Predict the structure of Tetratricopeptide repeat protein.
Amino acid sequence: MKSRIAFSLLTVFLALAGLTPAQAAEKQSFQQWLEHYRAWDRLEKEYAQESAADTPEAVLKRAQVYLNLNSPAKALEIIEMTPAFTGKDEADRLWLGGQAHRGLGDLTKAVLWYTQATKFLSDDEIRARFKGEPALETIWHDVWLKMYWSYLANHTLSRDSQKEALDMIMVVGRKVWENGFWNNVYFIMNPNMLPAGGASGKNTAVTAVPAPLLQPADTQLIARAMAAVSLEKFEEATGYVSQLSNETVRTFWTAVLYFLNSGNTPKKLDVFLKGNYLKAHAFWAGNVLAPYSKSRSDWFLGNPDSAAWTKFRNNILTMAPEEAEKAIDNELGSMLISEQTATLLRNFKLALSLSNGNAQIASTVWNSIDKKTLPICLRLAGVLSFKDDLNKILPEKPAQAFALYPVLAALSGAAGENIHPETEAPFWAAAPADKLQDLSAEYPLDRLLLLAYWQQRFETKPSTNLAKRAAYLFDDSSFGIRSLIYLADDAVRAKNLQLGAFYLNRIDEPALPPELRMAWLDIKTRLELDAGHQGKALETYQEMTKTGEPVPVMTRLRMALLYQQRREYETAQKELLAMWDARATMTTALQAETLFWLGEGEQAMRNPDKALDYYLKLAWQYPQENIWCLTAMYRASLIYEKRGKYETAKRLLGTVVRNASRKEQRVAAQARINAIDKKMGSEKDETKSSLVYPF
């Protein structure tokens, strides 16, 4: 009987330890034991000390350990320093490399590594692995899409290699997730594979094909306006735009001129939604021009900060068109000017001829210059005037070309020249907002439509998953930047400070517009406070207050309490009073808390009268805020007790005893009442006047 009991107890003990009797009989190795308890750091050391540490199995185990430790950089270092394996070991090495790149936030490289791993796997193994990796379907879609947009902007020798990579990713996508998107893009990328009489998979039933909003004359007016803007002749450009035949198009291009002059986007976008012009609304709501908010110098001819250039330009602009062109030709004929100056003068001549509508001279100059050196306004004006290919005017550096391409493509569409009519909806296509999902599905490669659809989804129901996708795909728009800020805020609120810092560091803070910079600084302040870096938090907070933008009340409160902790009471009171001034926007609980801390600050500065004012006002005005009300009454009672006003102190404490929800509060208040009773001795009726009549 005893042996059976002992065996049962042993069985229970082993079960609690996660072991069966059979497993217990086979003693675990130290490595297995460390793995069971997830002591990854010590497990990696064990692997590194093995005699066969360079074998594929050992290398892969070490890399996996660092991924488990959330150290993808260290895992990638091991993987990249290891020569390629063969067969399934190589598939595992490449797969771990993909996971490491994903952990570092580089989705493009992650997808490329995963793609290479498929070369060593069967179709069934590919499907199993891909479907076991979290959210890989959406990542595969977004990476391919972003690479495709980059491919459109590429005119260098690397374009063929880019096409090859797109095809490889697409083949895997079709194999693992056979859906409409991958079938559509397959035929778009391989039009020769279309079945006879077949369509590319586009559902043309949804498309709204409007009557053209722009006539050829309107396109030329926009070209002349852009040429004038390149010379910073905004009034002249406004005159051209005012002649456009459609009111909505005029509004759009007036907004473009406003942005180029000020760096600000239009505040009211209702006109575009009213007309169901979803792409025009998305252009401004997502702020495709965000990279140029801080500086528009790339759009203008010459150096705006050069006094000599400004004087020469202004002098030429005062002349009649023929006289101005002659003056420029005279300068170009000089043997003393540098090639740089000659290029500037030729570009000046192009801008003048385009803005004046002299197509013959403009065409001659356009065909004789290096278009890649032109300011952006002139590139756009030339493309619209001469129907040239965008690739001829893009920068040589791929990164710069990729950044500029969507801007020029969108503006060209807004001027009536659709760059990709087969794969993108017309810029001025009209469709109601509830058809946006269908329209974006019909044109899955249309960047602006996808931007519009995701914005709509995010406004309806924001989520971290959608924010991650938007931050990756639209990183050069304000929608993408706002998505990063959303992610950073979400991570910091969840106390995931490392992740919050990762998102914050992805944002170019100096280039942010004022309201987004305030949000960035606010998150950074809270991150530094939670990380215990109070000094840095104070410095960041001071930057916030200098912006002139409204400071979030909860951040202001936290900083006020930090100032109080540091005994900087006057600074703390200043922050709290600023909160009190804005109390109309606060909840009653926060209003009550503000009054409480104002009272605490005055008490700390030895101003009991002022402290009493705050405590009593709080207790009277916010009786429903039980915690703050009763704590204020308790604090006020201590002041009255100290002053010998025992009856008042007891009345306040009596309310605390009756209404406190926490036993500790009731006990503390009752203890004070008992202490006051001892001080009072025989009862004295303090309700009667203490006035003494001398006669």
Remarks:
- Residues 1-25, 197-209 have pLDDT under 50 and may be disordered.
- DSSP finds 37 helices and no strands in the chain.
- Residues 216-414 form one domain.
